[in-house]
Amino acid sequence: MTDELQRADNDSPWKEILEAYFPQAMQFFFPQTAALIDWERPHEFLDKEFQQIDRNAQQGRRYADKLVRVWQLNGEEIWLLIHVEIQAESEDDFEERMFIYNLRIFDKFAKPAISVAILCDSSPDWRPHQYSYNYPDTRLNFEFGTVKLLDYRNRWQELEASNNPFATVVMAHLKTQETRKKLGERKTWKFSLIRRLYEQGWQERDIRNLYRFIDWIMMLPRTLEAEFWQEFKQYEQERRMSYITTGERIGYERGAQTLVLRQLQKRFGELPQSVREQVQSLSTNQLETLGEALLDFTGLDDLVAWLAENPANSN
C-alpha cells in the first residue's frame, strides 16, 4: 500500500503509530497492564479477529482499534483491545460499545480481553469508564481503563522529558487542538516537534515514523505548508542529514482530497458525480475547512449547501 493511500484512511495515523510502537504505547498510557506482559515474547495484531466483532466499521467511523495477543509474565495468553477515540465530541453510546466489543470477544473466541481507551476529544468533563445496569436479581458492572489526552496539558514538562515516542504523539495532538484557529502558531510547533526528534537522537526509522504522524495531524494551508517545508529542508541541510525525502511530500494535496472524499462517502454513501467533481476542484485550504465542517453535517443537503457557499477558487 502506498503512503498516499495510507494517508487517505482517517484513522491510519493512529493505527500506524500503534503498530510501530505498541509496547511503548502500553507502557506510556497503561503502565499497570503493561507490567503484566512479557514483552520479550512477540505480540500479534489480530486484525481478522477484530473485523469479526466490528460490525459497524463502515459507518463513518471516527476511531481506531487494535486487538492484540500478548503473553503475561506468568506464561498465560491474554488479549488486549486498545481503542483510540478520535471523535471531536463526547459520544453517548461509548460505554455500551466498549462493553459489546469485550463481550463479543469472549463470546466468539472464549478469550477474556483487557479493554482500554485513549480519548482524544476536547471535552474535559467526558470521562467514560464503565457500563452497568442494576435490577433486583441481575446486575452488571463493566469497567475499562481510559486515558484522556487533554489531561497532559498540565504535564507538559513531563512530556518534554520523556523519551517514549508517545510523548511526542501526545504533544502533537495537544498542539493541533490548541492551534485550530492559529495556523501560523501551528506551523511553528510542527517545526519544533519535528526538530525535537533530531535533537533527542532518534534513529532514522523512528524520525520518519513520528514525522508521518506529526505531518498528518498538524495539517497546514498550502502557503504555510510550503514555508514549513522550505524551513525544514534548510534545517536538515544544516545538520547534514536528510531523513525526510521530498517524495514523502508528494501527494499532499491529492491525499487531502482523497481523505475528504472518503470521509464524505462513509457518512453519506456514494456521492453524485457532480458533487465529487465540486469537491475535487477545491483548493487544499478549502478541503481542510470542509474536513472540519463535515463533522457537523447531518445529510447530503448540508454538503451541497456548503459547496454552494464555498465555490472552488473563491479563496
From TrEMBL:
Protein name stated in the entry: DUF4351 domain-containing protein
Domain DUF4351: 251-307
Pfam families hit by this protein: DUF4351
UniProt xrefs under InterPro entries: DUF4351
